[in-house]
Amino acid sequence: MVPAWPRRSATPCSTTKRGCAKMLSEQRAAWPTPRHESPLTGIGHLLAEHGSPNGEFEVNGRPLVGFCIFRASPDEPALHAGVGSVIGISLPLQPNTYTQGADIRAIWLGPDEWMLASAVWSARDMESRLRHALGPGHYSVVDVTSGYTSVTLSGRKAPLVLARGCPLDLSARAFPMGECAQSVCFKAPVIVCAGGSGIYELIIRRSFAEYLMLMLLDAYKPIQQANLRY
Known about the structure:
Elements: H1 18-30, H2 44-49, E1 58-62, E2 66-72, H3 77-87, E3 98-100, E4 105-110, E5 113-118, H4 123-134, E6 139-143, E7 148-154, H5 158-163, E8 180-185, E9 188-196, E10 199-205, H6 206-224
Antiparallel strand pairs: 1-7, 2-5, 2-6, 3-4, 4-5, 7-10, 8-9, 9-10
Protein name: Sarcosine oxidase subunit gamma
Organism: Bordetella genomosp. 8
Pfam family, one: SoxG
């Protein structure tokens, strides 16, 4: 004879007491709203103290930039047209280039991968607009803002400072405005975008941001007094 399964109790029970659950709910309601904080907050005083004569080297964090990774086949013009209708610019198809719009930048990372960066749109907004415009299809769009941050280097000595830790040829001839490259800077992985006139945007992992800024500030010291040009 097969024994019958034990009958389920008519009285539901829980290991969490009602009073404790209510207290936890009240505590969660009182928690402050999460905010997006710069990974450079810990060295903000050093960045504020940093100054160079005639603005020959400036470094500025951009903590409020939103980042999305978009992936799709480069052979689907309708899909690319849909993206362009949302962000206002076309996705770059030439390797190691980016396209710049009024408030968004599209960076080529691979034959079927782009990074969308904007200081005006939130990544959540970008992702929502793209999904709404494109509908179902063979593509992916992911908010990666929590993993990246952006820093801008500028000034006539910015290429010299960056070259101390980055193996790229940063001359205007080899790395003109509108080009980008995935490389390393003081062993930290970076995406470097050339902005022209000695301006470079570095897109870096948040966990490397403070370390990399300290290395760049230190790299500037020996060339601060040197009359050098890249």
